[in-house]
Amino acid sequence: MWIADRWKDYEVLDTSNGEKLERWGSYILRRPDPQVIWNTPQNKRWNQLNGHYHRSAKGGGSWEFFDLPEQWTIEYPLEGHALTFNLKPFSFKHTGLFPEQATNWDWFSKKIREAGRPMKVLNLFAYTGGATIAAAAAGASVTHVDASKGMVTWAKENAVSSGLGDAPIRWIVDDCVKFVEREIRRGKTYDAIIMDPPSYGRGPKGEIWKIEEKVHPLIQLCTQLLSDEPLFFLINSYTTGLQPAVLAYMLSLELSKWGGTVNAGEIGLPVTGNGLVLPCGASGRWER
To answer: How confident is the model at residue 199 (pLDDT cuts 50, 70, 90)?
Structure first.
């Protein structure tokens, strides 16, 4: 398992009964987590909260706040450049950041720094830009693509907060598949591709995305955008059915012509209260 264990401003304090207790900077949040199927004793800190997302029996849920600001920031100590993220609780329990992805930021930023040449990175389903600003901080030119205008605006704010407002980042609001198809027609190439596709979603014009049906064809399309000497290809999945071995097989199948190596595994976050590591999805990594 690849573990995001270098955070100072974030930690999972404890896990129990379908929930996780987290510290985001100075604030404590209690949120659902489907991986937490154990029911262990909860100490008094579980009730010393700034925010609690309550699940609904009908699906979804709602936030209950206790002295929590509308927005605040935390930092991640990426080697050579601290990244600053703007957080705010919004729909379906999210805060605008998946902290477990820091283990991938560390991996690919090191590869970019050590490449010794200019790097062009494509980040698909780029959300609020964690991977984008990590790649830019390492010296890459990045094309950031997401179907949500609001998420792209949020990502720009994170770039500015991280001192990367003038970095070579191209911000695109578009359906990721259609953007890739257009880039192929334009003859564009990239040295590295990152994708963090949702399990299910809709594009800006109502396009339906189901990861089990769409992800392999998208990987096939993306290989047409790779340069003659690509550096890496990273895919993340939060879908239970897509095990690490499935990600590894798809990457091996489609990127074999470039040689290189493929690794895949779970990603996780350490839990300070009980010494466990909380599973948070899977990643597949191809690298030369």
So the answer is: confident
Q: Could you count the other beta carbons within 10 Å of the beta carbon of residue 276?
A: 17
Q: How far is CA 98 from the centre of its chain?
A: 6
Confirm if 133 and 159 have CB atoms less than 8 A apart: yes
Max Cα distance, the chain (Å)? 59
Q: What is the mean pLDDT of residues 56-65?
A: 88
- State how far the Cα of 285 lies from the Cα of 101, in Å rounded to an integer: 13
- Within 8 A by CB and 6+ apart from 265, the residues are 1, 2, 244, 282, 283
According to DSSP, the β-strands at 208-210 and 120-124 are unpaired
d(CA 48, CA 59): 26
Grouping H, G, I as helix, E, B as strand and the rest as coil, residue 260 is coil
Contact call for residues 242 and 253 (beta carbons, < 8 A): no
Q: How many residues does the chain have?
A: 288
In whole angstroms, how far apart are CA 50 and each of 63, 157, 198? 10, 24, 28
Residues 6+ apart with CB under 8 A from 110: 79, 138
pLDDT higher than threshold 70 for residue 3: yes
Helix/strand/coil for 250: helix
Q: Closest Cα partner for 27 from 69, 77, 56, 86?
A: 69
Using alpha carbons, select from 6, 46, 41 the residue that is nearest to residue 30.
Answer: 46
Q: What is the pLDDT of residue 193?
A: 98
Residue 81 to residue 225: CA distance in whole angstroms: 29
- Which pLDDT band holds residue 240 (cuts at 50, 70, 90)? low
